[in-house]
Specification:
Blueprint: H1 3-10, E1 11-17, H2 19-22, E2 32-37, E3 53-55, E4 61-65, H3 66-74, H4 78-83, E5 89-92, H5 94-101, H6 103-106, H7 110-133, H8 138-157, H9 168-175, H10 181-200, H11 210-226, H12 233-239
Parallel strand pairs: 2-4
Antiparallel strand pairs: 1-2, 1-5, 3-4
Helix pairs in contact: 7-8, 8-9, 8-10
């Protein structure tokens, strides 16, 4: 099974993420690409299942199989949820549009716990850098501040906004090391406290809409089984029980 073929031939949604999507890009910023591919249903009929994710084929490119993507989104994984809000969509088909239309079904007050846990892990890495080198990796500090802002605002409004807007310059000042670590620490603490307060009265539902997402996934799998592409060598090798390239 060729992972790159899955990305090349079966991507339903692809976007640009990272600094370019967050409104934090500078001249030297990379272009981080993320996507979702739908592995054809016949590929699940064998013991050797399709991969849950694929790195590449391009540099800075990463894709999730649809079911894995939905599972992570239902757990409020910030990296996954934010993909559905990218302002830079490079590819989308009918299934991808339905996935994006579901983005509100994934969010709930559980984002507070998940985002907080993720932020705590990133903060530990920054603290370790400070102990070892006397300063954090400022780019990572900037992105943690951005995540904390996003979490707070999502809990306050019920809407996930990934562009930093008027916070671009203050955040870039952190990236350039122009803000002292104690000031950055205080900023992080304040944002975390604001998120805690917002969580108590958030307009978000207590849990994501698992049933709605599962219905979408089951319908998509069924449609894929009915519509196996006769020209897709990867699929036909499974349907007819032969190796790729074998007549």
């Amino acid at each position: 099974m060729d992972p790159e073929a899955l990305v090349r031939d079966h991507t339903i949604y692809a976007c640009v993420m990272g600094s370019r999507a967050f409104g934090l890009a500078t001249d030297g910023s990379d272009t981080d690409r993320r996507g979702v591919f739908l592995a054809p249903t016949p590929l699940f009929w064998r013991f050797d299942k399709p991969p849950a994710h694929v790195e590449g084929p391009a540099e800075e490119q990463f894709g999730w199989e649809l079911e894995r993507f939905c599972t992570l989104a239902l757990r409020a994984n910030p990296n996954v949820l934010e993909c559905l809000h990218s302002p830079f969509v490079e590819h989308i088909d009918a299934t991808g549009r339905e996935l994006v239309a579901l983005r509100e079904a994934f969010v709930s007050r559980q984002v507070h716990e998940t985002f907080t846990r993720y932020a705590a892990g990133q903060r530990k890495k920054l603290d370790a850098d400070v102990r070892q080198y006397g300063a954090p990796r400022w780019k990572h500090a900037m992105h943690l501040l951005r995540l904390l802002m996003s979490s707070r605002d999502l809990l306050r409004t019920g809407v996930l906004t990934i562009d930093v807007g008027d916070q671009r310059e203050p955040l870039l000042a952190v990236k350039r090391g122009e803000v002292s670590w104690p000031e950055v620490e205080a900023w992080m603490v304040r944002l975390a406290e604001e998120a805690d307060a917002a969580s108590a009265r958030s307009p978000l539902p207590p849990e994501p809409d698992h049933a709605r997402v599962e219905d979408f996934l089951v319908r998509t799998r069924r449609a894929s089984a009915r519509q196996a592409d006769p020209d897709d060598e990867l699929v036909q090798s499974v349907v007819h029980g032969r190796s790729i390239g074998q007549p």
